[in-house]
Amino acid sequence: MNKMIRLMLSLFVLVPICALPVHATATEQTFFAVGAGDNISEGDVWDDDDDDITHYSLHVNGEFFSSDKLIIRCGSGTAQFNPESNTLTLNNATLSKTPTKGNFYADSAIGSALSDLTVVFNGKTVYDAGNTDNYFFRSTSSVTFTGNGIVEMVQDGADGKKPADVKIDVNGDIFADNVQLERFVVPTAKKGNLHIQNATLTQCELSVSGEAVLDDVTLDNCKLYAENQLTMNGCTILPSNGLLDGCTKLKSLTIAANQFGGDDDSGWQQSLFGDKYLTQLRIYVPVEEVYRFQQALPAYKSQIFADGPALLGDVDGDGTITVNDATVIQRYAAEYALPIADIIQQRGDVDGDGQITVVDATLIQKYLAEYILSYPVGKPMA
Length: 382
Prior knowledge:
By secondary structure, the chain is α/β, with parallel strands linked by helices. Helix content is 15%, strand content 35%. It has 3 domains: 31-172, no CATH class; 175-308, no CATH class; 309-382, Type 1 dockerin domain (Orthogonal Bundle), CATH 1.10.1330. It contains 6 helices and 28 strands.
């Protein structure tokens, strides 16, 4: 009798254990969990052996995309994912949800662990973050933003909904093409580059640790925090108080064909730098613009150089050989402390003897007096 009872009890315990499902459902997948020691690799997809469904490491409005769910309803709009082109298209999407706690990037309306995702904005995209400080978008890899739509983010306020910053967190390069970005904020400069072209930025704050390039961009009351190199081509900078005043680590600024706020050049320094002075910065401008920039940015006069090939003897970097070059060499030879010492060393050794001396200054003076010299003064250096 006791043996029979023990047998029945053992069967009672075994049956429910064996009945547990081998495969978790899509919502039960623990693959997305991020914690100590977890690792999300870029471009991760996986198949569910039970139903041959491919799941993608991309969520929008609290839901994940899969091969049987490539369109997610977002209010009266939609979010559509094309796995062939790795493109997410937001069509008048209203976002208000995030994934359940424990999933990756559960603090964002859109989260991606896919490589090189493209996000297209069509119409008006709105993210209602409620009483949270969540991100609009987070990604483990580079991303491209494009489309003719706009993005807004709101939060709960004392008197109802209030506008909020559209926070972005990307562990890679950020590329934006033909977009209108308002209150977009990249709060932390992670490893990666920033390239924006054919765009309008309003009240944006963008941080980048790599190279930043702005092509044909209109900037209205924006802040850039670049740590390495910034190139601005054909940009329009509307009146503001220091676009770059927070770039304390910026080393190189190349400016070409840009327009600055104000009725005349006197507003350039305030628009670019506010009241800050960036001691490490070197500014490169077209040869024909050197003098103009030196007058418009008096605090940076000695830090403005011609953007082009180095000319032998052009030690002040203004793109031409003048008596000032001879004077600079004379001051250097007299051991004056000059901020452009390395430029002088590179371009000032006219006679090629390995030293910067008054002889080099004399050769420049002879060149200006149209003496025939055997030294290539004023010629591009190899």
